[in-house]
Design a protein that fits this description.
Layout (H helix, E strand, L loop, with lengths): L1 H30 L1 H17 L3 H4 L6 E6 L4 H17 L4 E6 L6 H6 L7 E5 L5 E6 L4 H34 L9
Parallel strand pairs: 1-2
Antiparallel strand pairs: 1-3, 3-4
Helix pairs in contact: 2-4
Length: 181
């Protein structure tokens, strides 16, 4: 008879432990939801806050174009790194994010031959494709490519500026366009 009275006590303890466990899991999910769902949120916000690609390719700025999907685990993993890059470079570079599940972007998906995601394409300010990355990339790799695009811009500006200063120098020295020196 004593074993019968212990059985309900064990059931009560088991139920209490199970209820405590479920409560801890629910509280953890609530407290750490940003940690668990942050990447998914970032991907959604990328799509919502993205520069329209038609504008990006016409505004004379380099363009970072990423093809992604909200269900893509690698896209989610890269999202915080891409967000950091966006914060660092968004004044000088367009950031365009196109969800491959949105049929609105089908023409871009075909044009840039997207066959794996995430796919990051980097364009110079004239819209020429300079870099193409497919799959998981290290932040440093993309950062170097963005820096190269920026340096290209700066070096072209320096060359233009030095040419203009050379012309002024020649005019000040009285050299005629047809003279040899």
């Amino acid at each position: 008879m004593q074993s019968d009275s212990r059985e309900p006590l064990l059931n009560k303890n088991l139920k209490a432990i199970l209820a405590l466990f479920i409560t801890v899991v629910i509280i953890s999910l609530i407290l750490f939801r940003n940690l668990f769902f942050h990447s998914t949120y970032l991907l959604k916000s990328f799509g919502e806050l993205s520069v329209d690609p038609a504008i990006a390719f016409k505004n004379n700025k380099p363009t970072f174009l990423e093809f992604y999907a909200e269900w893509c685990e690698v896209c989610k993993e890269m999202a915080p790194k891409v967000s950091d890059l966006k914060e660092q470079y968004e004044k000088d570079i367009n950031f365009v994010f196109l969800n491959v599940d949105n049929q609105k972007w089908e023409n871009y998906i075909r044009k840039f031959e997207v066959n794996g995601i995430p796919q990051v394409n980097l364009f110079d300010r004239k819209g020429n494709l300079k870099y193409n990355f497919i799959g998981k990339q290290e932040e440093l790799t993309i950062k170097k490519a963005l820096s190269n695009i920026e340096r290209e811009l700066e070096s072209k500006e320096e060359i233009l500026n030095s040419e203009f200063s050379e012309i002024k120098k020649n005019k000040n020295n009285g050299i005629a366009p047809r003279s040899h020196g």
